[in-house]
Amino acid sequence: MKLRERWSRQANPIWRQTIRWPRVFVSVRTVESTELPTYKDLLLAVLRALDALGGTAHAKEINGWLLENMAFDDEAVRLQYPNRPGESILLDRIAWARSYNKLGGV
Q1: pLDDT by residue (tens digit) across 48-91?
Q2: 75: phi then psi, degrees, rounded to nearest 5
Q3: Phi/psi of residue 81, each to 5°?
Q4: What is the spatial distance between Cα 86 and Cα 21, in angstroms, rounded to a whole number?
Q5: How far apart are CA 101 and CA 106, in angstroms?
Q6: Percentages helix, strand, coil for the chain, rounded to the nearest 5?
Q7: 74 three-state secondary structure
Q8: Most buried pick, 11, 28, 41, 43, via CB within 10 A?
Q9: Cα–Cα distance between 95 and 76 in angstroms, integer?
């Protein structure tokens, strides 16, 4: 018997076993993307962050200030676009707000 066949799921009976996990139901409130502020709502917040950071700052510094002072929880930051896995909706909206403020000359 070849090594590959020996360890395949069909040849190895351990893979056929069913593991039953205990069912635990936890009530967790999830954040919806409609509950997050739009980029328009974040325009003034980005300006306030720039003012608090001395008038100039890197994008990471602005993001950090906004996440700390606007009291966003981890769930809001983890919320992702369904068609773009790995990209946070909130951080994307903050990036758009920074971009539009920059285009406006701020």
Answers
A1: 999 999 999 999 999 999 999 988 888 888 888 888 888 899 99
A2: -65, -40
A3: -70, 140
A4: 28
A5: 6
A6: 55, 5, 40
A7: helix
A8: 43
A9: 15
SS (H, E, C) 24-35: CCCCCCCCCHHH
Does the predicted model carry a pTM greater than 0.85?
A: no
Q: Return d(Cα 73, Cα 64) in angstroms, integer.
A: 12
Residue 41 has which token pair? Answer: 């709502």
Show the tokens assigned to 1.
Answer: 């018997």
Structure token digits, residue 89: 């909706």
Pair of tokens at residue 68: 């700390």
What is d(CA 96, CA 62) in angstroms, rounded to the nearest whole number?
12
Helix/strand/coil for 20: coil
How far, in Å, are 9, 44, 74, 80, 88 from residue 34 at the CA level? 44, 19, 16, 12, 14
Structure-token pair, residue 103: 């285009």
Q: Residue 55: how many CB atoms within 10 A of its CB?
A: 8
